[in-house]
Amino acid sequence: MTTKNKKDGFLGELSIVLPSTVSQQVKEDPLMRDLYITDIGFYPHARFHFRKRIHGSTEYILIYVSNGSGAVNIGKENFVLTKNDFIIIPKNTFHHYHADEKDAWTIYWVHFNGEKADLLANHFGKRISLPAHHTPQEDFRISLFKDLIHTLSMGYVKSHLEYANLGLHRLLASFLYPSLCMHYQQAQDTDIISISISYMRAHLGEALSLQDLARQSGLSVAHYSKLFTQKTGFSPIDHFIQLKIQYACQLLDISQLYIKEIAYKVGYQDPYYFSRIFKKVMRMSPLEYRKRDKL
Q: What is the domain range of residue 228?
């Protein structure tokens, strides 16, 4: 059972919840199954943020406070977290946490699991504090979070999943070995397909055709489709649909918009058709998604 008590989203909030079909793919992949992400996100100035899970979560939860403060209770232990503190909540363990009423925390968080998760989580022990002052290592850590979120926001192609889940090792290591962190400079995508995906993300409310996408890339439809599929493993339109549904998930998380309003925002004039597409991708209806347990 999960108890919630937060307002409908936080301005600037980002969250990625992997569809069950994608998570299953990751669990079965020899390269990723030892340690993998199921959910990841960022809640800025998260006033009234509160969660209570009687039976805990089926995954480990890492919460990193980049600003403000809050409190976490795990079993009979209580922790107060302030700027630059973190905690890993064990899976299947009673817990609750909340932002401070006067100085609400800004948090980066990730749910993770896998064959190495138990060993790695135990390796952290009771450690929750990092150096209390602003450091280049802190910037590096936040950049890693943003990099993983950005990568998954570009769609669930195999290369993105592998990059993000292999990157999770580095993210966790940055907490376990803070003195070894180094500056991170985020690389910018410059290839045609990455630019095309960015174009898709900027036009999620439109019904772009394959011809529209190919034209924007300056390629023929056949050449564009071949390059896109070679790089991502998906056709351009299938990938565009994934991005639309991903954005719809974010709107379901952070707003009280009606399903039909969300459908319009992601380019579907028929809300019933949108719901069918959503269920095909996420294996649950938009309403079921909105009611699910989450961080």
A: 192-291
Express each pLDDT in 138-181 by its tens digit.
678 898 999 999 999 999 999 999 999 999 999 998 888 776 66
Q: What is the DSSP letter of 209?
A: -
Q: Is 45 exposed, middle or buried (0-12, 13-18, 19+ CB in 10 A)?
A: middle
Question: Model pTM?
Answer: 0.70
Q: CA nearest 56: which of 121, 149, 146? A: 121
Domain closes at, from 180, 202, 236: 180
Structure-block tokens of residue 281: 């991708």
Whether 186 is covered by a domain: the verdict is no
Separation between Cα atoms, residue 122 and residue 117, nearest integer Å: 8
- d(CA 17, CA 89) in angstroms, rounded, equals 18
φ/ψ of 117, rounded to 5, equals -60, -45
First to last CA, the chain: 13
pLDDT in tens, 8-52: 466 678 889 999 999 999 999 999 999 999 999 999 998 889 999
